[in-house]
Amino acid sequence: MAQAFFGGVHPNDMKAATNEKAIEQLQAPAQVVIPMSMHFGAPCTPTVSKGDYVKLGQKIGEFKGLGAPIHASVSGTVAAVEPRPYSMGGKVMSVVIDNDFKDDLSEEVHAPADPDALSVEEMVEMVKQAGIVGMGGATFPTHTKISSGIGKVDTVIINGAECEPYITGDHRAMLERPAEIIGGCCYLAKMFGVVVIGVEDNKKNGIEALNKVIAEQKAPVVVESLRCRYPQGGEKQLCQAITGKQVPPGGLPANIGCAVFNINTTIAIYHAIKDGMPVVRTVSGSGVVEPKNLECPIGTPVSLLFDACGGLKDETFKLIAGGPMMGMAQASADFPVAKGTGAVLAFAANENKVSEDPTCIRCGRCVEACPMHLEPLYLYLYVQKNRIEDLEAAHVMDCIECGACSYICPGRLHLTHSFKVGKQKVKEAAAKAKAAAEAAKAAEEAKKEA
User: Fold this and answer.
1) How far apart are the C-alpha atoms of 436 and 50, rounded to whole Å?
2) Rounded Cα gap, residues 31 and 373, in angstroms
3) Nearest-5° Cα angle at 287, 282 to 290
4) What pTM value is reported for the model?
5) What is the pLDDT of residues 138-180, one digit of tens each?
6) How far apart are CA 283 and CA 408, in angstroms?
7) Cα–Cα dist 188/123, whole Å
């Protein structure tokens, strides 16, 4: 490790409930609800209609611009194409499929005759057609990240930090599917060059499993052991920890020659070029009777995942899609598993740390914890006072919403939430200013023509 990143916190990892439990295959449900928005970018347009028969792996949603196609996770008949609830809040157009339990594989799914003979362009196209996105939660289309990085990126970093408490899906994948991870790394090495897997040192058996496969295959991959600290899994922090280089404000890892991919994204790349797209999903949290690591088809109702874990405890008060630091609270379990659903957590009453009277005591601990060198206490003030220009000047848009400041705050301020609101206000102000400028320009041109 070249150096540590700035700031960060040390929450209890809370991984003991599932880190020694093997990934279980959850039986496919009788009906799946597949959202047309499972990626960064505009939602896909459904390419099937009610009554159509679809096969496993068949494309059912096509994208335009920035995005990734969406495929059927089971075979069966389309029961509806309509808006349904999803994890980002509200409803989104979804394809509902009644499962016939035949797993009739689509003709669209086929392996190349010789995967190792594929060109970089052919591999990128296969990743694109497979609909792979960042499975760490960001859901940025993987084919876009690869194609835009070719010629700029010389170091690929595989994010195996899994620094959020409770979540253990990546760790279990390292133990149970190391060959698939290294296989995906080898394809990425052909596309870019050096591949480094960053793994926090609380997963020593995962590091050993990866190194064993690397030695057996003589793979051009290196595993870097990282010190445990949240948010080690943030791509900018991971780049700094492994390369010693800092991503500039407002920049991307590509600006310093890096590209970052999640462990399960790497597995998906391997199977996209070989034969398919498996998706690992984790369920944990003290609100469930028996926490587990589960793999299930995309579109599986989250309520069925909880049922597979023995149901929710009576005192459960909050459901979260994602980790406890960066996840999004849900109104109910009435939403489906999507590509970026890395975990679903349920919290019981004794874990409620919310204060009825959040108060800033000017201790400065949030400033020390912020990995982006920001000053959360001032950002919070600017949001409360609606000081948009000050918000922008204080670089609120550089906030990665990691939640470190909220975690460390003794006054229990809702810091991360307020910064999300502040970023939206900055965007709205910029859009309003742009519209006013365009209107003024149009009026000026009309005046000249008159």
Assistant:
1) 44
2) 47
3) 60
4) 0.91
5) 899 999 999 999 989 999 999 999 999 999 999 999 999 999 9
6) 25
7) 9
